[in-house]
Fold this protein.
Amino acid sequence: MSMHDAKPCILVAVELQSGDLHPLALEALQAGSQVAQGINGRMSAAVMGNGTGMAVKRLQGFGLEHVYVVDDPLLDGYQSEHYSAALTAICQSAAPVYILMPNTLTGVDLAPRLAWELDAGLVTDCVAVQNAEDGPVFVKPVYSGNVMAVYRAATCPFLVTLRPRAFAPMQPQNAKTTTIVPVTCTFNPNPRVAQVQHLDAEVQGIRLETAERIVAGGRGMGGSEGFGQLRALADVLGAAIGASRPPCDLGWVAPTAQVGQTGEIVAPGLYIAVGISGSTQHLAGMSGAKTIVAINADPQASIFRVADYGVVGKYEEVIPTFTETLKDMLTEEA
Amino acid sequence: MRIVVCIKQVPDPEGPRDAYFINTANATVEPRGIPPVLSLFDENALEAALRIRDQIPQGSVSVLSIGKRIPNAVMLKALAAGADSLVKVEDESLDASGLDSYITAQVLAAALSKLGFDLIVVGRQAADWNDGQVGIGIARLLDLPSVTLVRSVHLSGHDMEIERVLPQGYEIVRTALPALIMVGGEAGELRYPSMIQRREAKNKPITTWNLIDIGLTTLPAKRVIRQRLFAPELKDRACRMVDGASLAEAGRNLAERLHSDRVV
């Protein structure tokens, strides 16, 4: 074994989306490169799926040492048992010191399974990596974002999941080529939890996670009718519809519209919060927006503390003229 | 059918920021002036359990909580909402400064073994430390199938058909009892107890165990070290308030302001 191979391995488990790299994979690579820098290690990636070619190709040029691949028809869509088996097999091959992945719905399921499989510690939902003398520490918001906690590993390997939008996407670099390592894995032919049916949610309009503009409603909307006004505004702006937790729990909008710590974490150019008081768990999901506009009847609402522009008043009276004026201005320009 | 829901009380997560006092000596948080509440997703977990029991007349729902000291006040809410009994594991060593997810799962698994169960329901993560891994740990320790991000459960004999959240929709999975499910907001808000239910809650059975009672003499070593806590930087923005003679005019002014500032 050369000296080069002896460098500790930081393994980043990447997710696929429609056969390509999930956009959050690049953020995880960025976090991984910070860890690698701190401990003078080398970063590798783990790719699992059915048809991984495009993602593996895109992972060239990030200065990765290895890309470990399990490509199998059984990995067509996330399945807990198969994916944790595949990632465990990769870890046996890669012998990583740190394992990182995004805190997506997949990561939320996969990371704890892997941690228990490897007898490893896990810190979830981290927003920063800092390199200290005795190794990296991982910072995560706790107590609904009112306190930050700093964790370090008590096991090797050690797992970390990363909050979406907390790290800048890694830029490809003209680094040396990466070795692709196919890994074989034996799957349980009779998983204890079997998929019966797959239902895609109907998403109307623009998807939240990639939207440049978001119009979001909260409890102050008073019901599903209020969201009709927001849709008209969103149409004018080419924006996606979001919501805080109460409208989702109350069924006024689809649960997939939820922006917040346990919903979608977004960082659009413009976020218009209507009837949203600004609970810490909601702010955790949208405070990364470039410009925040708040419309709320309560002048004391904490949303105004994070907003750039605010109107105090009943949204029913503000939104129609706001929408109409924007429509006129934007059509004039077009 | 015996359903056990693991629950915990936390300081109200919607409290103001300065209500979460940081104890730097042992890296714990001491709430000041905010009431303890049931952790939000644990309420969803209890609701999921109650909805399953609604399908089977002879089912029972127990709630299980561990900690240094567990006051009954918050736990009574679970009993009022419909849980049949409460089991507490109280021990001096079950202090937030001495626990991580690994140890918590060990303690809960030991208590669950003693208690007996067909189905274990837990929240997807607690509102204080947000770790989100205890459920999967319990399932692993008790060798149970586990399903996360559960929205609803339909029982058919000894099998469960479970609707589970996916990034772009839902899937239905099937597994056999005994099993463990982890539940989030999708499972629905906890039902509101009636006055009679509230009164009756006080007469429901409460059992208190310590670690020896559940067969644990020592706790394992932590797998995660919480080094320190700090208060987040406040990134309040300077909010420019827009108004007008009427709210309708304020709406027009807001549009014009955003346009002249090149936001839109």
